[in-house]
Amino acid sequence: MAMRYTRGFDIEAANKHLRKVDKPLAAWMRRIGPLPEPTDWRKSFDPVNALARAILYQQLHGKAAATITGRLEVAAGSRRLNADSLGRVSDADVRACGVSGNKLLALRDLCERELGCEIPGVRKMATMDEDAIIKALVPVRGIGRWTVEMMLMFKLGRPDVLPVDDFGIRKGHQILDGLDEMPSPKETLARGEAWGPYRTWASIYLWKISDFGKGPIPRSQGK
Predict the structure, then answer these.
(1) 20, 65, 167 from 91: Cα distances, Å
(2) pLDDT digits (tens, 9 = 90+) for 92-119
(3) I need a surface site. Which of 99, 107, 171, 193 has the fewest CB within 10 A?
(4) What's the CA gap between 27 and 209, in Å, rounded?
């Protein structure tokens, strides 16, 4: 029987493991305090809709992207952006919503791939490992590895994802280990070996560490 992957994981087990295997990270975890479970792990999830929104939000501030996305939802007559709803909107009308030419091409490519059954649904993804999902989705125009990694972490709740190309992750690693220079993706990947199988949770703490920069160390509100 094929392995099935659940959405989400045991956060307490992740905390316990990370505190045990990495003392510097454990110190930061105590100072930052407990983090909440990402809310999207429990919500319904449509990969095509999520990818369409990821395309629309690229290289834009949140408010501007939300405005453009809202206009497109109105034009499509649906809050679910996929081949069916976007197929009702002409290229000219998509562009009139504020969507760039490159993003229009990316949305059309995504829809064509959905119609060609190239985009796995949630049920199919539950039988696929992380590398298989990345391999299936990065051929979509405008979708890179980082975008899929964010989906794996925050939508699918996969426990062992370390997005080493992310600036914040590497900045967090630099601060964690007191490095003079930003580590390379390869160095962060090697550093994160000990965090498996909970590298997703370690990554979320690294982002928090990066947010604090080299300022005062936060005091935990938790125990």
Answers:
(1) 54, 18, 34
(2) 999 999 999 999 999 999 999 999 999 9
(3) 193
(4) 11
